[in-house]
Each structure stands twice: as C-alpha cells, then as structure tokens.
Amino acid sequence: MEWAVANEFPEVWFETFLAPENAAPVHRELEFIQRHFPLAEFIRLIDVPCGIGRHAGPLAELGYRVVGIDRSEWATGVARARYPSVDFRTLDMFKLATIEETFDGLLCLWHSFGYGSSDQNVGLLADMRALLRPGGRLLMDIYNAEAAAQLPNQERGERAGRSVQTSRTWIGSRLRVELEYSDTELRDVHEWELYSPGEFEKMAETVGLDVVTRCAWFDPSIPPNADHLRMQFVLEHPG
Question: Are 157 and 180 within 8 A, CB to CB?
Fold first, then answer.
C-alpha cells in the first residue's frame, strides 16, 4: 500500500469525487455567491483553492473576473483547459502574501481550510483578509467540528465505479481521513483542524473580519449546528 502525501489531493481523488458525472452540482453554491457577492459590487474574485475550476469557470461565464489558485499543477492544468479565459495560477494557499493584488471577494469552498497548525490557520485567514479591499467579502465553506464528531470511524461507499473505504481518526481538534480505493494501491490522506461555529467566529474576529451571515448547506434558513456537516460564513473586511 502506497501512502500519498497528506492533503496533496492526488489525481484519483479528483477522478473519484469531482468527475462531472460524479460530483455534486454547484448551482446552489453559485446562487449563494451571486446573492452575497453581487456582480455590481464584487466583480473581482479570487478562488482559494480553485481545484479544477468548478466554481471559478462558471463564475467567469456569469461575468465575474476570477483568479483561481491551487497548489496542484495537475488541477490548474485541467482548469485552464476547460476555462481558458480564466486566470488560473499554481500557488500554495499558504503563500497568499506573495499576491500583490486586491480583490472584491475571496472564496474558500469545499472545506479547504484548516490544513495547518492553529497559528498557521489564523495566519492564513489574516492573509485572506489582506487580499480584500475595504468592504470586500470572504466566503468560507467548512466542516462543523460538532457535526464531524458524529461521523462513523469507518465507512465504505461506491463512487465513480470504485469502492472507497474511509477511515476517520481524531487527534485533538484535528480530523485525519484516510481513503482507500478499490482499484489502486494508493492510500489517500487528508487532515484538518476543525472548528465549531463559535470557535471560527472568534478566529474571524481576531483577524479583523465581521460576520455578515452564517448558515449550513448554503441555506440561510438553516443555522450552523451539530446536525449539519457543512457550514458557511460570509465575512467582511470592515475597512
């Protein structure tokens, strides 16, 4: 059994979970973005990380000017091929401070936050704020630690014609997820620090971001709580 580097998101992960025929549709997410980032006020967006461009591409087609960054050269290569008009860049999200531009909005979707240590995660959120103009907004879509704690330690499912065995282990506030695919010897590993709604709001306050709205599953009628794994925060740079 070969171990992947933690949080590298190898090609088999994208094939399994984000192939067009297997991935969950993003229309609900796009509608949410348009509602909270209206084009007239938030035309210039940065998608961190962008993966294969599932959000950045459609947003550009709607008229937004989008920059997408991802550490994976393979993912940004796929994104460029699909959406050649979008500015996709291969860059680690922990190097956001090297970007000398300002944006109206920043998107961080599909639980792409929490990979670093506690201090690194706070620093990353501060770097995200620094990319925003005064009045700019940040959309954070992350797992709720209180809901994730109820997930089973072992789980098997079928995706993209392959069986996937999921193993979950908690190390303090960090969740480690190991994925074994039935048709490859690669064992895929992901690890994050997870936060409760209150903990994340305190972190946002620490770096100078105001909470505009909070919800679960991109539905403003559902508050973040232990019954819902995914939660969203729209944060604003107060200026």
Answer: no
pTM, two decimal places: 0.93
Q: Which pLDDT does position 3 carry in this prediction?
A: 62
Mean pLDDT of the chain: 93
- Whether 172 is covered by a domain: the verdict is no
Q: What share of the chain is helix, strand, coil (3-state, %, to 5)?
A: 30, 35, 40
Query: Looking at residue 85, what is its pLDDT?
Result: 93
Identify the pLDDT of residue 7. Answer: 83
How far, rounded to the nearest angstrom, does the alpha carbon of residue 27 sit from its chain's CA centroid?
Answer: 16
Asked if residue 138 lies in contact with residue 108, where contact means CB atoms within 8 angstroms, the answer is yes
Helix or strand holding residue 192 (H, E): strand 186-193
Q: Which residues of the chain have pLDDT under 50?
A: none
Side-chain-facing half-sphere of 132: CA atoms under 13 Å: 28
Structural domain containing residue 79:
9-143+196-236
Amino acid at residue number 105? G
CATH number for the domain harbouring residue 30: 3.40.50.150
Cis peptide before 224 (omega within 30 of 0): no
Query: What is the count of structural domains for the chain?
Result: 1
